[in-house]
Amino acid sequence: MVFGERHHAEALREEVSAVLAPLGLRLAPEKTQVVHVDEGFTFLGFDIRRMRKRGTSKHHVYTKPSKKAVQSIKDKVKVKTYRSTRYQDLGELIADVNRSLVGWANYFRHGVSKATFSAVDSFVWGRLMRWTRAKYAGKTRLSMKELRRRFCDQGWRFAHNGVVFTGAASVEVTRYRYRGRNIPTPWTPRSAAAVTGN
Questions:
Q1: 3-state secondary structure of 170
Q2: How does the average pLDDT of the chain come out, rounded?
Q3: How far is Cα 73 from Cα 77, in angstroms, rounded to an integer?
Q4: Residue 193's pLDDT is what?
Q5: Strands 46-52 and 41-43, how do they pair?
Q6: What per-residue confidence (pLDDT) applies to 31?
Q7: Which of 21, 45, 160, 192 stands the most exposed, by the fewest C-beta atoms within 10 Å?
Q8: Which residues are CB-contacts of 61 (< 8 A; sequence separation ≥ 6)?
């Protein structure tokens, strides 16, 4: 991140390339882009972009799970709820899906992720509903009323044999506290490092 203009970022990129070259390393051109924070960029699965806060004239930098990251967890759930998995008990499936969602959500909890978690849970609920209706359907199609009576506890929350669908939204979203220059680095001047140690 550079507080400056494009040419400052490009100059820094050249410096980094010069440092890496003697180590036998190089920056991959297709993965190394210079963009303005208002355009946004994806880093380690997070979309990072400065946007106007809704209802105000203030701008903030937001981090949230990228579309690719969201699609990856959806694809994982699709595999777990495919027709070939219907031999499983519903409770086992719910527990397995919960583990995947909680692990994924724990990684993305440090950002503007609450709405994304809810959207993922809604998708997963739909997959569980179709899986359950297909597995437990007899000669007649299982109605939504019957599905709710037999396989849900609070409202429309899936629960079976004491196992409850908690989903990604069960993970609390916590923002990183801005610490600026308070984190010492190998390049922190000695006096600054001493101050931060107090």
A1: helix
A2: 86
A3: 6
A4: 44
A5: antiparallel
A6: 80
A7: 21
A8: 37, 48, 49, 50
User: Rounded to 5 degrees, what are φ and ψ at 65?
Assistant: -60, 135
- Residue 64 identity: K
Q: How many CB atoms lie within 10 A of CB 191?
A: 7
In one letter, which amino acid is 52? R
Q: Which helix (H) or strand (E) holds 70?
A: helix 67-80
How far, in Å, are 1, 111, 122, 177 from residue 117 at the CA level?
A: 28, 11, 9, 21
The structure tokens listed for 173 are: 């979203």
Q: Residue 70 has what pLDDT?
A: 96
**Of the ranges 14-23, 147-156, 169-178, which one carries the lowest mean pLDDT score?**
169-178
User: Which residues, listed in sequence order, are joined to residue 60 by a DSSP beta bridge?
Assistant: 51
The percent helix, strand, coil of the chain (3-state, each to 5) is 50, 10, 35
What residues are paired with 159 via a beta bridge?
164
Residue 160: half-sphere exposure toward Cβ, Cα within 13 Å:
18
pLDDT at 198: 47
Task: Specify the residue for token string 């410096």.
Answer: 15
Q: How confident is the model at residue 56 (pLDDT cuts 50, 70, 90)?
A: confident
Q: How far apart are CA 150 and CA 34, in angstroms?
A: 55
Contact 40, 48 (CB under 8 A): yes
Q: How far apart are CA 128 and CA 94, in angstroms?
A: 8
pLDDT value of position 178: 62
